[in-house]
Amino acid sequence: MPFINIMTNVDCQQVDEVIEAIAKVSAKATGKSTKSTLVNLQLNQCIWFANSMEPAAMVNVEAVRVSDELTQQFVDCLTAEIAQHLHISLERIYINIAEFTPQRWALAGKLLG
User: Fold this and answer.
1) Do the strands 93-100 and 57-64 form a parallel or antiparallel pair, or are they unpaired?
2) Domain tally for the chain?
């Protein structure tokens, strides 16, 4: 049940397409369903990174239990997808992953753990 929050300083007209692609990559890499994946895409943000305002993205991923093996695969796939759809250089995509226990994540008013 990952939550992927993408903040970028680029604009995009195909928002639905990008969000769907990110959800599918997440589902494939984590083995979770797209039905349980949340994606937030924040466009046209003021992001200054590596001494420039060139296209960049900051991605925060929050998830319940992601194995170390899946983490690198997930990062590789997510980075590639963002670079392709938002036309951002790989070197300008920053990803942070926070992991939670099921006792710290709830859906429909009920803890998952």
Assistant:
1) parallel
2) 1
Q: Nearest Cα to 32, choosing from 40, 42, 24, 44? A: 24
Q: Which domain holds residue 15?
A: 3-111
Tens digits of per-residue pLDDT, 25-84? 988 887 888 998 999 999 999 999 999 999 999 999 998 877 777 788 889 999 999 999
Q: What is the CATH number of the domain that holds 103?
A: 3.30.429.10
* Beta pairing partners, 61: 4, 97
In this structure, how many other beta carbons lie within 10 angstroms of the beta carbon of residue 38? Answer: 13
User: What is the per-residue pLDDT for 78?
Assistant: 95
Question: How far is Cα 113 from Cα 106, in angstroms, rounded to an integer?
Answer: 8
Give the neighbor-by-neighbor strand order of the sheet with 38-42: 38-42, 3-8, 57-64, 93-100
